[in-house]
């Protein structure tokens, strides 16, 4: 009798743990399901200019969620001709200036590429890709959610590196 009561208690314990894990997973994934990666309507290839590309990047960045203390500026870097397309490269530099330190010790960059196809119809929208400095993962608008933590991590790693260098 005691042996069977032990089995029942053990079974109830495992059932409790299993249900707790299911509830936690549901809570975690229900929060993520509610978020939809933001995007904008990108211009057709035929209407593209370097300045308009920069404005569209700024418009896209405005859909990101980040604290108001962050400042950024976007610069056009260069134009690259490849076999089937033209690539336009931009850099958005991020920092958090303060009253005590208006010139930040480190910045974080996001590199955008706007691709204009030479073979697809010009009425199609431009293709846009971006990467964060010191990473290889290529993001596409509307497919990944911006995380402010990525910028903080870049700046933090630069500050740690600078502390270890003796001039």
TrEMBL record:
The keyword Cytoplasm does not apply. InterPro entries: AKAP, AKAP_28. The chain crosses the membrane at residues 12-29. It comes from the Eukaryota. The keyword Transferase does not apply. Keywords: Membrane, Transmembrane, Transmembrane helix. This is A-kinase anchoring protein 14. The lineage of its organism: Eukaryota, Metazoa, Chordata, Craniata, Vertebrata.
């Amino acid at each position: 009798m005691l042996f069977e009561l032990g089995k029942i208690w053990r079974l109830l314990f495992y059932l409790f743990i299993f249900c707790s894990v299911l509830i936690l997973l549901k809570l975690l994934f229900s929060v993520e399901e509610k978020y939809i990666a933001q995007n904008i309507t990108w211009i057709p290839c035929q209407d593209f200019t370097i300045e308009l590309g920069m404005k569209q990047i700024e418009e896209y960045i405005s859909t990101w969620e980040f604290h108001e203390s962050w400042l950024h500026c976007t610069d056009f870097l260069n134009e690259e001709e490849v076999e089937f397309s033209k690539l336009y490269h931009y850099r958005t530099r991020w920092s958090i200036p303060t009253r005590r330190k208006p010139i930040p010790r480190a910045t974080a960059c996001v590199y955008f590429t706007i691709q204009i196809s030479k073979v697809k119809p010009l009425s199609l929208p431009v293709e846009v890709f971006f990467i964060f400095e010191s990473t290889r993962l290529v993001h596409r608008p509307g497919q990944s959610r911006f995380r402010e933590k990525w910028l903080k991590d870049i700046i933090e790693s630069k500050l740690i590196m600078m502390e270890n260098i003796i001039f």
